[in-house]
Amino acid sequence: MASTFCQKLLLLSLFLLFSAFSAKAVFPRKNQLHFSPTSSLAKIPAEKLIRGLNLFPKDVVNAGTDDLTVETSKIVEKQFRFPVLGAPGPSVKEFGHHAGYYKLPHSKAARMFYFFFESRNSKKDPVVIWLTGGPGCSSELALFYENGPFHLAKNLSLIWNDYGWDKASNILFVDQPTGTGFSYTSDENDIRHDENGVSNDLYDFLKEFFKQHPQYVKNDFYITGESYAGHYIPAFAVRVHQGNKAKEGIHVNLKGFAIGNGLTNPEIQYQAYPDYALNTSLITQSDYVSIKKLVPSCVQAIKRCGTNSGDACVDSYQICNNVFNQIMGIAGNVNYYDIRKQCEVDLCYDFSDVETFLNLKSVRDALGVGDIDFVSCSSAVYEAMIMDWMRNFEVGIPALLEDGIKVLIYAGEYDLICNWLGNSKWVHAMTWSGQKKFGAAHIVPFVVDGAVAGKLKSHGPLTFLKVHDAGHMVPMDQPKASLQMLQNWMQGKLASSEIAERVTPK
């Protein structure tokens, strides 16, 4: 179990998970993915992890089928209507639910799949995009278990989510990078290996989406996600901002981005593991002293990755795993996504219903995906991104802050993998013009229905929020608080001290 660390780390991102155990060929034709032998170190832990979430995708990557590659339109979208139990408003018919494929222009044969849900409140609400981490896990995991319009009942029926983020936004859930979820390619060259490839694909998609939906072009736009999306999100935000400045087609009205329990600056966040583990009594003081001795070699390995790339990044991935491995070796079967819970043997969560539901022929027909199977998490995508893992993506954020782009970093307090302490440390260490004032800002309570739901600190466009009674997946553990967080933040009201002073901090 100990050896599963970093692989587990971002794999859950909303539910970090991936498929590493399929014996089936990666692509149905002659193409095969060829990774270096070092990348295979992820396979065994990946298998253990996805089984721990009760996910069993048939394929290691979504290769799709040739029959869908004949279309030439950039976006092929259809409106669909799932039978949902209960009605959230005046008329379910008023809510537009869409699913579509986008033909990625800088690829051989890649198609990006997405869901788009119009707001249950107003079409003038902001447009929000959600990215699940992994790397290689589908955003449908978040859609059905966290902040989508509906949840899956045990009998595979759908029930409205009273706290879905579509109650405050027009929301996109995108399967990315290529090979994840329903997104597919029949050419191995389309599998992305770094954030340049990921962010360019997302930016290309976004411009085409707004071209096809011009009524939303002037709406505020926000990027959100969790876990390994701590890499995706800032890289994507930088790409959008650069595109706007260079006038690359449609202007995207980017207002901000939010990262939940993310991995953004590994060098700082890995150093926080022993401290968080000690503070939460997962390890003893003597354990702490011993494990802390492993940290310097991890830090140096990450620095070498930043300088040399290549094998140095794979080495840092292995070396830094040792820190977490030692902690988990002592903690035993504790659920590293929510340390209040224990895993029963290998099973920590059960997300299997989403695979069953999305592979139903009736559902595939409704969504227009044909015979394509749903790959909940792709081990091939995960392996392809392995040298991206220890990269620092905090570096692009200061310039965005200086230009007034709002940044929200939030974290459930009981998550070990991407814990709030490590996230707080990198946010405070980030060099920008408001760094000192942010550091000196008062911590105030985040209030939901008159009760304290978290603690936050804010200055200018930067906000950090520690969410109480939540693990790695804040929208799943605290749905009402997460929706209010989103609403207040987009409205510029999250750090209102007037509201905060009405209650006593927890």
UniProtKB/TrEMBL annotation:
<keyword id="KW-0378">Hydrolase</keyword>
<dbReference type="InterPro" id="IPR029058">
    <property type="entry name" value="AB_hydrolase_fold"/>
</dbReference>
<comment type="similarity">
    <text>Belongs to the peptidase S10 family.</text>
</comment>
<keyword id="KW-0325">Glycoprotein</keyword>
<dbReference type="GO" id="GO:0004185">
    <property type="term" value="F:serine-type carboxypeptidase activity"/>
</dbReference>
<keyword id="KW-1015">Disulfide bond</keyword>
<keyword id="KW-0121">Carboxypeptidase</keyword>
<protein>
    <recommendedName>
        <fullName>Carboxypeptidase</fullName>
        <ecNumber>3.4.16.-</ecNumber>
    </recommendedName>
</protein>
<keyword id="KW-0964">Secreted</keyword>
<dbReference type="GO" id="GO:0006508">
    <property type="term" value="P:proteolysis"/>
</dbReference>
<dbReference type="InterPro" id="IPR001563">
    <property type="entry name" value="Peptidase_S10"/>
</dbReference>
<dbReference type="InterPro" id="IPR018202">
    <property type="entry name" value="Ser_caboxypep_ser_AS"/>
</dbReference>
<dbReference type="GO" id="GO:0005773">
    <property type="term" value="C:vacuole"/>
</dbReference>
<feature type="signal peptide">
    <location>
        <begin position="1"/>
        <end position="25"/>
    </location>
</feature>
<comment type="function">
    <text>Probable carboxypeptidase.</text>
</comment>
<keyword id="KW-0645">Protease</keyword>
<dbReference type="Pfam" id="PF00450">
    <property type="entry name" value="Peptidase_S10"/>
</dbReference>
<dbReference type="GO" id="GO:0005576">
    <property type="term" value="C:extracellular region"/>
</dbReference>
<keyword id="KW-0732">Signal</keyword>
<dbReference type="InterPro" id="IPR033124">
    <property type="entry name" value="Ser_caboxypep_his_AS"/>
</dbReference>
